[in-house]
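Re: Re: ligand-bound prediction request (bumping)

Still looking for help on this. To restate: I need the protein modeled with flavin-adenine dinucleotide bound, output as structure tokens. Inputs repeated here so nobody has to scroll up.
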Amino acid sequence: MTSKPVNNNRLTYDPDILSAYNEDALGIRGGFEAVFRAQAEDEIMDLIKKCAADRKAVTPQGLRSSLTGASICDKGIALSLEKMNRIIDIDVKNRRAIVEPGVITSDLKEAVLGEGLFYPPDPTSAGESTIGGNVATNASGSSALKYGSTIDWVQGLKVIDGNADLIDVKNILSEKSSAGYGLMNKPVNIFVGSEGTIGIITQIEVSLTLKPPPFFLGTAFFQDLKSVLDFNLTVRKDRYCSPKSIEFFDNACLNILRPEAEGLFIPADALFMVNFEQEYDDERHLQKHLDGWYKIIKTYSGFFDNTQISSSKAQIKHLKYLRHYIPEKMNEESIKAWKKGGCKIASDWTVPYNKLHELFDYFDKIKYILGDMTVVRFGHIGQGHPHFNFMARNGEEKKAAEKINTLMAIKAVELGGAISGEHGIGKTKRNLISFQYPDAVIKIMKVIKKEFDPKGILAPGNIFCVNSLF
Ligand SMILES: Cc1cc2nc3c(=O)[nH]c(=O)nc-3n(C[C@H](O)[C@H](O)[C@H](O)COP(=O)(O)OP(=O)(O)OC[C@H]3O[C@@H](n4cnc5c(N)ncnc54)[C@H](O)[C@@H]3O)c2cc1C
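Reply:
Sorry for the wait, this slipped through. Here it is.
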């Protein structure tokens, strides 16, 4: 392969600049020798040609907010897409947008709202992650309960693979298709969740929907976990509650929130909190929904009188801030703990929502493994997707946290769940993939990787151990 020289203006070896690109949101450090801050597709093609010829690793990066070490590598070049951040087109008539990968998710959401449209995926990190990163991890957020994950909104991609070929792939517009191996009318899906391992995403077409109706955000408090889980189960089956999210927070979260929670009254003896969002069409529907929620809260909450319903922009913004504050605080702790060999080990497994009782019971049986380590549990129980965060203070605790996280993931799969609901595999969950997929399926994924990246230069170490591939 003959290669054009790479654009040296985009390449930086400066250790001060490089340092930022060598660390992710969890504090995982990489060993990149340089960062290439691309501004155009042809620059990426030149870089990939050169790196393929030299067998040099290239790891694409959005804003490094992923929580699995996926944006970091111990060698090669970090390929930052943050400067390819143009919203190319918002097609109001066909409810589509075409964007570059470095667009910050919340910027896209805001831009389309300005046109009366809505891009639903809402990772808590929407303000600090890119659409490219969201596609590469299949990110989702609390409202995935109603609106699905990133994969449900991506319709077309441009991707530069490890051969430096530009692939232009689009989902088929007709509703039915019966051709091929399961991808059917959605060939784009092959690249969603690929974590940089089979190509650099350079352009993304997403579908949009109409601006949603107003919603209220309810907050209810509980005295024990069983009541929370029973509440969740009942809501999911109720005809008057159709939440777009149900998020739970345990006592460790409440302890983090109490000093910040101005404007939110947390009863002193409450041990759990649940936030739920409910959209409504008009005042009549609003009352029906409220009656439905109140009835169920009364049944399961010992703190019915402390239930809060927030509907003003300011109230909701504050509650969203508090929701974001929890992982942010823990990530700060994680970065500090790295110095002593510890870090936050965060779970991302999911189960069918009606299996949550079994999963939590199992945790109670094995939690002795953790000793007195702090565990902070919160997240998307509406979809059977709570995040358990084990705050390991040193190397020994980290091993214990990894052990329990693995046992929980195996149990989740046994219960019909998945090893990762939204963060992806990266480097920290590679050992789990064989619990979810049969050997034959893993083999096929490796064949796909080799087809798109025959030299093994793209995001090495993500999803699969390098040794198991080449
Ligand atoms: C406080 C906090 C809250 C979070 N909350 C959520 C949440 O609610 N839901 C959720 O899903 N995640 C959440 N995350 C995780 C993270 O934000 C997501 O994984 C996000 O999608 C990563 O986007 P990024 O732009 O930061 O990508 P990066 O972290 O830079 O990269 C992530 C992966 O994508 C690949 N990649 C990035 N750009 C491209 C590209 N253009 N082409 C090919 N591959 C690419 C990278 O190689 C890497 O494998 C949270 C993180 C933090 C710090």
